[in-house]
Amino acid sequence: MVGIDRRLLQNVDWALIAVAFGLVVMSAVTLASLHVGRAGGSVVVRQLIWFLIGLIALILLGSLDYRRLVRAAPAIYLLGLMGLAAVFVLGRTVSGARRWVVFGPLSIQPSEIFKVCFLLMVVWAITSRWAQPVGKITLALTLPILAVPIVLIIKQPDLGTAILLVPVLGILLIGAGMRLKLLGGLALASLAAMPLAWLALKEYQRERILVFLDPFRDPLGSAYNVIQAKIAIGSGQLLGKGVAGATQSRLAFLPERHTDFIFAVFAEMWGFVGCLVLLFCYVLLLLRGFDIAASAREPVGRLLALGATTLIAAQVLINVGMVTGLLPVVGIPLPMMSYGGSSMVASFMTLGLLLSVRMRQFQ
Amino acid sequence: MVIATAVILGFVVLIGQLWYLQVLEGGRFLDASDKNRIRIRPIAAPRGILYDRNGTPLVDNRPAFTLSLIPRELPRDVESRDAVLGRVASLLNIPYQELLDAVARVQLDSFLPVRVRRGLTLTDVAKVEEWKLELPGVITEVEPQRVYPTSRFAAHLLGYVREANDEQLKQGRYRRGDMVGQSGLERLLDEYLRGQDGGERIEVDAMGRQVRRVQQMEPHAGAQVVTTIDRGFQEAAERAMDGHAGAVVVMDPRNGDVLAMVSTPAFEIDRFTGTIEREAWLRVVQDPNFPLLNRTIQSQYAPGSVFKIIVAAAGLQEGSITPLDRTFCNGEFRLGTFAFKDWKEGGHGLVDLHQSIVHSCNIFFYQAGLKIGAPAIVKYASAFGFSQPTGVDLPGEKLGFLPQPKAVRGRATKTWPAGETVNMSIGQGAVLVTPMQVARFMSAVANGGVLWRPRLVQRVERSERGVVWADRGQVSGHVELSPVVWAFLRQSMWAVVNDGGTGVGARIPGLDIAGKTGTAQMISKSRADKGQDHAWFAAFAPAKAPEVVVVVLVERGGKGGQVAAPIARKILNAIFYEKVAAVEVDG
Q: Is A171 on the interface with B (CB under 8 A)?
């Protein structure tokens, strides 16, 4: 392993770590109040175990030189793709989707971990000498990197994760100096291809989008989640109902309440003020991330930090957006809050990359 | 910088939406959450049906009414809640304490109905509906419940179904109020028989009346189980055993299928399903006749003279005796200072092996046993599967017992007393067997030496997925005897029933039955006529091409030939007579 000299340690971004810990604590408290699962606190305990695993991943990635990671990106990316493909062979089906691979007591969701592999690969591709100057060649090089995993992930099906990869690529291209005109043209072209995508969607995914456009299309079925989540959030009012009074969440009106819809639970318990605190934590985290990107002195570190930050930002915005009814329901977890081991580890790996860039900004 | 600004902008939009939802519209949503009177009404899945081999159901389900409480809809303050419970107690004659206990066990803000009492009568239901407005949080539900052809029908085989007990709830696989198989096949196959409960979310008004159904999940019925039992045979065997304590096993010697399995006295299987009163429970548990015991596999008895078939097989195959050997039986056999008696005062006179089996002469077998030696007898007995589990699907099977004399050059050691060998030769002494083991042994005699694992379940089927589990039967051992020996044994056993032997009580003209009687002494110098002995009869029919083996054991019944053989006759009669009748109807 790379030796850690004092100068590296001096540059550890403690504020970033402190905010992440704060989010994990909020997650544990929220999960503990839900009484999900068979034995009382097992979900909380599992979440904390995953947090520890995530912490190890963070320290590991932080201590590695990110440039070496990026150089190894093609291999890592291939491994990630194999993980995605493994789901079809070894996968376990949960509520109709094959997203998990089971290793003994652990079940891992490769698409979560893949996000990090994807980020490294895109950074590698954009900064590689073949992609210079940034322009049409760069696009031609990076689009296949996006297309292959998207097909695999949509097949699982896991629409949320697939959608997430798009903004990461887009922001990285902009960050690398791609002309907006070119990207805009691409966006228009893909918009024109939308009807085709519609055909590729699963029935329940189409239904979700239709329900988003018109919640009262099916108030008894698919829209049930959205309506109940809105009631939960709204009834929290300014100061929240506290743990005991959060009837919406505790009485199981809310489906997926410990995973994708955990924000609604939090909002019901702690109200608008609590939500402000939570969102402020995320904003703080993201601002640190953008700061790391801005203060990096070479393009690899800058793009990596930018991409890592974008990854977290996109997840938070899409998750909270869908829970509050602003976006369609697409099954993206709230980083560091939602229950789920792979998501937790992936989030901490992302933070580890950020730390690695920060620690080496003067080298 | 531009990107960071865009992200911040996104957060501002989110906060705006939260402001709108929580602060501007918060009151409205709070109202909505309070009015969110959605009731989750579980719909119990019907338990899978157990069928006999011909597709006739052994158990069925019928809708039954259950009284349930919804904790969240009971009055909040303790006083008026207790008043509601008191009203229920006096209306339906339920102990008040029972209701208090039921409420104390659950979270008070739970929507899930707590089942308090099953098996309500229609009158009870009418009373609850009539008082509905005075009884907030009290509802009646319809659930499928087990019904049995008769109260004690195949009680040990099927087993009873009851609400999950505290122990089972701790394992976490069951919810309170779930019906769980507690014994017999119901327990063994519980995973399959339990369906998947469905449920519906219904919106109710302040009075608890359903306004509309919000969501529904269909319950999935449990899997269908096809057993090897023949319901007709089972009923016939139960009728034949009426009034006796003991066991009957009817087996198909060609494949080990258990066609009937009766243990008497049986418990009232349907009484165990609902709430059983304390006294009724104690009556069953403390009954000196142990009605909960499955005597076919869980009770061990001395085999008595049934064991002589094994002694004869050992002697003939090893060559230590021949069919030509003769003994003069004067009713007494002296070994040292001990005198071993024959059951027949004055003895049987001059007898050979065949006659000794037919008339169950003890004196001949005492001498034969000494010639053959205990190790050889034990060797053949264990080859026929004694002292080993039969591997039947039900739990708690007893192994029986065979003594282990150590052979020194073919002879017993000093520590093994010759008197033990003498006793063992007529199936007394230390040897213990279960009726199921005897049935497996008798099947091997009938089919020429194949030991089948007794099979109770043929297959488990789900309506949507077809066969999910199947038992194709399994041979668990093989006994090699010369064909001449097999023929001799069958011939002698045929004569036991049809040629003036001890089993004449089982004789049915026109049907070739082969069998062997046994009378197992419980205590020394017991008297069969005083009903101190266990009566055995093990038979197969038709002798030439056996289709069924019938083993009857009557506890403290008396002589095998006088008590057990007539019962076997009734069963065989029902099996073959009704079979013929069925064919005629079909034709």
A: yes
Dihedral of the alpha carbons of A171, A176, A179, A184, in degrees to the nearest 10: -20
**Which residue range forms the structural domain that includes residue B204?**
42-59+148-227
Query: How far is the CA of A183 from the CAs of A24, A170, A197, B286, in angstroms?
Result: 36, 8, 19, 85
Whether residue B33 lies inside any domain: the answer is no
Q: Is B157 found in the same domain as B269?
A: no
pTM of the model: 0.61
Both B207 and B339 in a single domain?
no
Flag if B17 and A237 touch (Cβ within 8 Å).
no
Report mean pLDDT in 10-residue bins for chain A, 363 residues.
Answer: 63 88 91 61 80 92 89 91 82 61 71 91 88 79 86 76 86 84 78 71 67 53 70 84 69 67 88 92 93 89 93 93 84 87 92 90 71
How far apart CA B351 and CA B355 sit, in angstroms, is 6
On whether both B253 and B380 belong to a single domain, the answer is: yes
**Where in chain A are the domains?**
6-327+336-359
Of B13, B33, B110, the CB nearest to A248: B33
In this structure, are B183 and B261 located in the same domain? no
Contacts of B290 (CB under 8 A, 6+ apart): none
Q: How close is the nearest chain A Cα to the Cα of B197, in Å?
A: 17
B27/A175 touch (CB, cutoff 8 Å), yes or no: no
* CB B469, CB B185: distance < 8 Å: no
B396 in a domain, yes or no? yes
Contact A252 B40 (CB under 8 A): yes
B399 with B509, same domain? Answer: yes
> Does residue B415 register a pLDDT over 90?
no
Domain match, B217 and B261 both? no
In a domain, B7, yes or no: no
B93 and B51 within one domain? no
Question: Concatenated DSSP letters for A72-87?
Answer: THHHHHHHHHHHHHHH
Is any Cβ of chain B less than 8 angstroms from the Cβ of A253?
yes
**Which of B2, B28, B29, B171 is most worth mutating to test chain A (most A CB atoms within 10 A of its CB)?**
B29
What ipTM does the predicted assembly reach? 0.82
Last residue of a domain, one of B227, B253, B269: B227
Classify the C-alpha dihedral B76-B77-B80-B86 as positive or negative. Answer: positive
pLDDT in tens, B129-174: 888 888 888 888 888 888 888 888 888 999 888 888 777 777 766 7
Q: Is the pLDDT of residue B201 over 90?
A: no
- Min CA distance, B215 vs chain A (Å)? 6
Q: What is the CATH number of the domain that holds B206?
A: 3.90.1310.10
Question: Considering CB atoms only, which of B33, B40, B72 is closest to A235?
Answer: B33
Q: How distant is the Cα of B182 from the closest Cα of chain A, in angstroms?
A: 22
Domain shared by B259 and B320, yes or no = yes
- CA pair distance A309, A311, nearest whole angstrom: 5
